[in-house]
From TrEMBL:
Catalytic reaction annotation: D-glucose 6-phosphate + NADP(+) = 6-phospho-D-glucono-1,5-lactone + NADPH + H(+)
Function noted in UniProt: Catalyzes the oxidation of glucose 6-phosphate to 6-phosphogluconolactone.
Protein name listed in UniProt: Glucose-6-phosphate 1-dehydrogenase
Residues where NADP(+) binds: R66, K181
EC numbers on record: 1.1.1.49
Catalytic residues as annotated in Swiss-Prot or TrEMBL: H273
GO molecular function, one term: NADP binding
Length: 523
């Protein structure tokens, strides 16, 4: 049984500003402004924010990049990007393009050039005067991770990290910085990055962005758990058998081989996306619905996950690497044949692991995690499997094929929630079957969900850090990942299990869960 809701032809525009609270005027400064992330995500997001939601007149975008552009050349490139990457029903007309382009400015410099940051400071002061941006600055580091510390150092050296001027309303202006993942490569590098940030910015100025946290369905995990009286009483070891989290990608490494060779699936996905999903699904109720209370509970949850021992890594973690296979009906090469990948690479493109949470709520409840590239479909889901009834009244033949109750939260691509229940098949025979009760966010509300980057950039402009990751969260999750990767470093290459592209992973991953008498719930 599924929810019978007609999908409207045109979804209503969502409201991005909380309770009608508009952001203050500001300048968004983008480092790495000519890069792929900026062109694909940031510019279309800022264009949508500016032209589809009320924004202050004093709103400007400044590029800080190496290429020898001027304002006009950069404006032309940005307009080309948003024309290419904005959804078809969100394209700008000529007047809107002209309005958006008039807010774009360019500052050419190398990241290690001290004079370039002084030039940036002068430009920002000029925009404060001419465009009424009120001294509020949002620095967005859409740059390779190895440049972050250098940029942070020079921002501090140029005096750009500290708000110091009156914004015209008798208040001090604000300065914030957005840092893209990955937040380090391991615990030591994450701690160094945090120290570098802490020398220049205060923690309440730092917004560590994980785009998964901007997805509407991820945010709805909190609402689902704590706004519904029928589920929270069941959300514990007494009623839940186990939890599964899958982050499946249908594509291979594409053009990211250089990055992926140093990261692998566990650093690219598990350390951030999976840990954030896990913490929201399993955390205790926060004392209040505010940033620090929610992040306190997420941290407590992550700290309740035991560090893996060497034997636990060998028994409870499977790493794999795709070999040649078929994806979307087309033959694809194996990971080692991808351009930029070493033919002797042991980098994992797949991880399956079983972990536990040592607290009263989740004692003896296993959490199974899978993520990988070149899997059969792109999907992110969280599945809560409830325990079977303590005594089955029906005969074995009448319940053949009946599945346990499962609650599945679909993060992407078809955002929604499904609950599997047992029901009697019509007729005289006592035959039971599993049916679905569910809904889709778009069809249920008729409202367009905001893009993840739109939600997060808007929250940063408002100073709301609820959906961003705190320093201690990052370091706690890296401690868990390090305990796995340090063991992997000493294991022979054959422990990286091959799996055909287009499959659900190596056989060892199936064995991991089947040994516990369970099976994967494939999307």
């Amino acid at each position: 049984m599924t929810q019978n809701v007609q999908v409207p032809e045109h979804l209503k525009q969502h409201t991005i500003w909380q309770d009608g609270h508009l952001p203050e005027p500001c300048t968004v400064v983008i480092f790495g402004a000519t890069g792929d992330l900026a062109q694909r995500k940031i510019y279309p997001t800022l264009a949508h924010l500016m032209l589809n939601h009320p924004t202050p007149e004093g709103f400007c975008i400044v590029a800080f990049a190496r290429r020898p552009f001027d304002d006009e050349k950069w404006r032309a490139q940005v307009l080309t990007s948003i024309e290419k990457y904005m959804p078809e029903d969100d394209k700008l007309d000529d007047a809107e393009k002209k309005t958006f382009a008039s807010r774009l400015f360019y500052c050419q410099s190398n990241f290690d050039d001290r004079e370039g940051y002084q030039k940036l400071s002068d430009l920002l002061d000029k925009l404060d005067s001419e465009q009424n941006t009120s001294g509020n600055r949002l620095f967005y580091l859409a740059t390779p991770p190895d440049t972050d510390s250098e940029i942070i150092y020079h921002l501090g050296g140029a005096g750009l990290a500290r708000p110091s001027r009156d914004n015209g309303n008798g208040d001090t202006s604000w300065t914030r910085i957005i840092i893209e993942k990955p937040f380090g490569h391991d615990l030591a590098s994450a701690q160094k990055l945090n120290r570098d940030l802490g020398r220049v910015f205060r923690e309440n100025q730092i917004f560590r962005i994980d785009h998964y946290m901007g997805k509407e369905t991820v945010q709805n995990i909190i609402a689902f758990r704590f706004a519904n009286g029928i589920f929270e009483p069941l959300w514990n070891q007494k009623y839940i058998d186990h939890v599964q989290i899958v982050v499946a990608e249908s594509l291979g490494v594409e053009s990211r081989a250089e990055f992926y060779e140093h990261a692998g699936a566990i650093r690219d996905i598990v350390q951030n996306h999976v840990m954030q999903l896990l913490s929201l699904v399993a955390m205790e109720p926060p004392a209040a619905f505010d940033a620090e209370a929610i992040r306190d509970e997420k941290l407590k949850l992550i700290r309740a996950i035991p560090i893996f021992t060497t034997e636990q890594v060998k028994e409870n973690v499977v790493r794999g690497q795709y070999i040649a296979g078929t994806a979307d009906g087309k033959p694809v090469v194996g990971y080692k044949e991808e351009q930029g990948v070493s033919p002797t690479s042991t980098t994992e493109t797949y991880v399956a692991l079983k972990l536990s949470i040592e607290n009263w709520r989740w004692a003896d409840v296993p959490f199974y995690v899978r993520t990988g590239k070149h899997l059969p479909k792109r999907s992110t889901e969280v599945t809560i499997q409830f325990k079977r009834v303590p005594h089955q009244l029906y005969k074995v033949g009448e319940t053949r094929g009946l599945e346990p109750n499962r609650l599945t939260i679909r993060i992407q691509p078809d955002e929604g929630i499904t609950l599997k229940i047992g029901a009697k098949v019509p007729g005289a025979a006592q035959q039971l079957a599993t049916v679905d009760m569910g809904f889709s966010y778009n069809s249920a509300f008729g409202v367009q969900s905001p893009e993840a980057y739109e939600r997060l950039i808007a929250d940063c402009m408002l100073g709301d850090s609820t959906l961003f990751i705190r320093r201690d969260e990052i370091e706690a999750s890296w401690s868990i990942i390090d305990s796995i990767t340090k063991v992997w470093a000493d294991l022979p290459p054959e422990t990286v299990r091959p799996y055909a592209a287009g499959s659900w992973g190596p056989q060892e991953a199936d064995t991991l869960i089947e040994e516990d008498g369970r099976h994967w719930d494939n999307p």
